[in-house]
Amino acid sequence: GSHWASEKMTYLENNNETWQVFSQELITHFSNALSVSQAGAQLMNLTQGNKNVDEFLDEFSDLASTVQITGNTTILILEKTINRCTAKAVHSLQTIPNSWADYLETI
Fold this sequence. Notes:
It is a single chain. This protein is mainly alpha-helical. It has helices at residues 2-14, 19-45, 53-67, 71-81, 84-91, 100-106. The chain starts with a helix and ends with a helix. The model has no long low-confidence stretch (mean pLDDT 83).
């Protein structure tokens, strides 16, 4: 937040950059942070509901990628968001997927 702005102001002063350049970079910097925050909120509220598995996984994967979660965290969140039918199908397999890549291949 403010650390980035301080560094940027120092850079701009030392390189004779304009306020317009700074203000545009400030907007870009914080809108990216807002996008990540919004994606996180959407991911935590996401449910499969009646969506087919492919459609749901596309949406889930996009949000997880934006938030930059990986590994077991991805799997834990996925298991809370898929519907019971999908969860039952996954857990009835002989080998339950234990990585995100395995889940994507299995489902």
